[in-house]
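Quick question, first post here. What does this chain look like in 3D?
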Amino acid sequence: MWPSASAMNSPVGDLYNDLTSAEKRRVAPYVTNTSEPVFALTNLPEVVKGALFSRYSRSPLGLRRLLLKEFLAAATESGNQGAHDGPPQLLADRAQDFYDRILDGFGDDSIAELGGAHLALENVSMIATKILEDSRIGGSPLEKSTRYVSFADRVGGEFRFFQEPRLMASAHRERYLAINRALFETYGRSIAPMTAYIERVVPKEPGTSGAAYRRSVRAKALDALRGLLPASTLTNMGIFGNGRFFETLLIRLRLSPLAEAQGLADAAYTELGKVIPSFIRRANPAHPHFAGFRDFELEQSRAIAGIAEIAAGADAPSGAATEGVTLVEYDADAETKLLAALVFAETAAPLPALRQWAAGLDHDAREQIFSTLAGLRRNRRHKLSRALEMVTYTFDLVGDYGMYRDLHRHRMLTQIRQPLTTRLGFVMPDEVRAAGLDADFQAVMERAADAFEAVSPEYPLEAQYLVPMAYRIRWLFHLSLRELMWLVELRSTPQGHPAYRRMAQEMFRRVREVHPRLASLIRFVDLADYPLGRLGAEQRHEEKKGADNPSSS
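> Answer (accepted):
Ran it through. Tokens below.
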């Protein structure tokens, strides 16, 4: 156990535990303890916590003393002396002034990472969720699942899809409404027959929990039919992020050519301004910095568009694509680089010398090293050294949009996607065909493709809202071996969606072909197929629930 500050027989202990009884009472509402060297802040606005931590890095004082001296003392002088009063506005005003000087005066952006917020965004399209999730560092998004929630119900007599304002005001209005409604109608009326088909081909076995079985069947049915949902489908998202993350996100949304993104920027700016105003002030179009961001993005877009015109002659496949994983680039010296980085911190040798050492290791020595490393892992959450980040791979990937949406959530990698279209063809799940639902599925997919081709010449970006999730998209991943290990092991688990399970399995196989020893470190990839993937997890949940509540069984 960490020794208490009072027990520390050192000047450091005295420095950080020098509060009088009265001062401790004053600071107590805002910290989890008033004397130990480890404590958390409570009951303070995010802007105050951030300012306090930033001042902390520039002061010889302990944090509690700093809170008293620079914030609470000012509140006392203003007459707001109650020890248990809520944080007075004066604290926020002082923090605001601090950020004005530091962020604008010195450009110290990192201090905007010292406070954060939880933001809920409801009734946003699946197109918008990808823009929201593109900001990867500093934020954690969570999105409503298409697996556990049916999207078949209507609200106010209408299905839940985004009525894109430019298309709704155009000559394409009726086409847009008709295709979206047709997709939702086909989705809704397919749920019952798909559920019945799955129950028929994968009947409940004796000893299996009825609740677990029903949930698994439901998830399997919704998984098979999610491709019918258009990219306009409205969903809900929750995002936790620090101030720097939200500033970047708001700027990206404001500069998007999509009306929905711009509307979300306005709404999010208003609400975040109520909790972390100082962190997002540069996302205001009236702020001097915003003009610089805007001009840079416009100039960069024009420059890249010009380069793309030069590249227009590159061979591009026409017609439908097949689902695929292409390993475009890998490092022939990957093992040598990994081994040298692995021992770097444990030696005094320079990196070039360690690489020379690693290059000289024979086959048997390498086999022994990688076998030892692999054997250390007991489950997929056991992550090997960051030395694995020295090895990288680049993949060209083609898969349906539903699959892409799942894999897009991995943040510790570089990913770039092409626009969503119907020109790469669509994926019809085997279950749809086997359940006798293929004719309806095929017909509505073709209608959606016709609508896309009619709308896209005039509204190329807005036409993406018409594309059902069954249609394919092309994107690239550039990632380290360490992130690949996490992605492949997580996305190949039995309860995963069959589509992204196949892609994760294929990514593993491509790496195993070129780096078999490195692939051996990925111990928990699951290459098997399962008729009812979620059943094992649901059954374990029911068994645990029964063990925790024996009277309920």
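Residues 1-14, 77-88 have pLDDT under 50 and may be disordered.
The longest helix spans residues 173-201.
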